[in-house]
Each structure stands twice: as structure tokens, then as C-alpha cells.
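Researcher: Structure prediction, please.
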Amino acid sequence: MSTIVTIAGSPSVNSSTDALLSYVSRRITGAGHTVLPVVIRDLPAQALLSADVNDSAIAEAVEAVDAADAVVVVSPVYKAAYSGLLKVFLDLLPQRAFRGKAVLPLVTGGSPAHVLAVDYALRPVLTSLGADHVGQGWFVLSSHIRVYPDGGVLIDPASAGPVAEVTENFLAALARHSPVQLPPGPRRVSPVAGDPDLSVLYVEPGDPELAPLLDDLSVEYTTRYGRVSAYTQLTEVPVTDFLPPDGAFLVLTENGETVAGGAIRRYDDATAEVKRVWTSSRHRRRGLGRRLMAELERAALDLGYRRIHLTTGPRQPEATKLYLASGYQARFDVTADPETIGPLAFAKELVPGAGLADWEQPEREPETVGAGR
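Model: Predicted structure follows.
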């Protein structure tokens, strides 16, 4: 695997730019690569401004860039260009510092007016430094990035999907493979369980088909909740809970690629609990979530369950929208701030008359992250 240096060009601590970089870094490490961060604002100011490459901290940063296999450069936009802090650092690098390396540029800004900053301001200087491949890059609105006091990060799906895609293409270029291509057009799938447009596979924990699902969930949970826990490690329940006759793990595949997946386990004698709901970041907004829920409901019926219970975390708004759109009843105040509630519970009757209105949820340990995508 490769060593990738990330160059953070924001002068501010706890900025949206740094939050974006933390998300991308988790995706990179999740793919098995090593990330070495260079945070420019932490370098000695006098040595940086005077381009003193003999300073030990400056020399270490320059050496890290030289030894890296690839580079990720992230900066906020100021005056229609990348930050002065980043410019000062790039100016002290050798002329061909990026020779033979793949580079991924990412930029954050407060207005769509700055969307061309990647191509017209940052890309030319990266090319002039000899980059072997400069990835497509992406501009992310600062308003699309929410940073929580505990370090959690929530990125609007409108930006999270493209950022995940350009990151995957960057890693593909690094591996000297062709970039991953999305299916042409927004081809939606059937919401009907059993429709032949997708393959539905029932798998066991540990099956290679689950790797994309579990790896991506770990990245998402760690990013959004800002810490490692049993939930981010996906070990909060025994994997044996997902085995028949009490549970099932299924994935949806398209052209041999795992595009969505989820699981059910026993909650009580009449109720299945949904866990591990996931849709590939490259295939969202195609109706895969609705289709997945339909397949999970059919699996629950086949196992004899009459209703479904699930919870999702407060920082997973797209999951909340999915469950409401799929006919699930929110068992919490939907007008309240989700952060004041904690785990958000939903339920749905699979068999009319299953008694959802009168059903009392059994007491469980408090959860931070539930079934959300």
C-alpha cells in the first residue's frame, strides 16, 4: 500500500477545511493506505515565511512530501484563490516536488462563486510542481460541512458523494488502474423486492461481499461521531445475531459490484431489528435505499417476524428521510433537535394488526449509532 501526505492549508483550527480533510483521510486509511499529515499552520511561522528549509520542522515536512507516493492538498478559498498559507508552503518546495505523484486537490468556500478555484487557481501550480496526475478535485461549500463540538463531522450528501467519488478515482490513479466510472445517467432501480434489475445475495458475516459495506460504515460513523466506539468498529452486537433462523445479512449487487446492503436480527419474538443499512456513496439518489428496505422487510417476513424496529444516529439525516419515506413511524419528536434525543427509533408493521401502536420497546442499552446509512 502507499503513503499519502495530506497538506492542510487552513489557518484556522477546527475549520470546515480540516473537517473535510479528516473525512477524506479516513476513506484513504480505510482503503489500506498510510496517511502522513502536514498541517502548515503548525510549522514555525518565521522559518515558513523566510523559506528556511534548514529549519528542522520545515525540513521534515518537505522530506515527507518528497518521500510520499501521493499528495492530498486541501485549502479554503480566499480572494478567489487558495490560502496564502498554502502558497507560502508550496513556494518553498523544490520545483519538481510532486514529480511522479498523484495529487488530489480539494477546496472549501462560502459561495458557489468560488467553484472554479480548483481548476483555475490550484491546479496550475500543482501541475507546475511536476505532478504525474492531478485528480479532478472538488469544491465543497462550507455550509455543507457541519462540525460538532465533540469532533464529529457531517457532510451534506450533495458534497459527500462527489468527494467520495473523486477520492476513489484518485486512489485508482495511484494504483495505476483506470478511474472508477459511474453508471451512465441517474438510472434508478425498482422499489419492489424481488425485481430482477439487481442481484440480492444472502451472505454470512465475513463474506468478502460485505467488505465495501462494513469499511464504508466504519468511515462514516467515525467521521460523524468523532470517536472510535463499538458502533464505529461495528462490534456493538455479536455477528452471530445475523445468522438464520434469527437474522440475515444481505447485499444488493449490480454488475458484480456491491452497491447496498443491510441486516436484520431478532429484537423480540415478533420483531426484527434492522442494522447495518448502507448504500455506496457512488450510487446514492438512485432509489437503492428504498429497494434495500423492501428486501429486508421481505427477509423479515420469511423469518416469521411481524414488525420491524430500528434506530439511527442523530447525525444521519439522510437515514431519517429514508425511513420516513419507506413508511416507518418515528417513535420520537420529529420537531426536536436530534442531538437532544440520541438514537432515533423507528418502527413499522409488516403484518396488519401487529400492534405497533400498543407495542412497548424493550429496554436496551443506550445507542449512539444505529442502522443509518
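Model: The domain at 3-174 is CATH 3.40.50.360 (Rossmann fold).
Researcher: Thanks, that helps.
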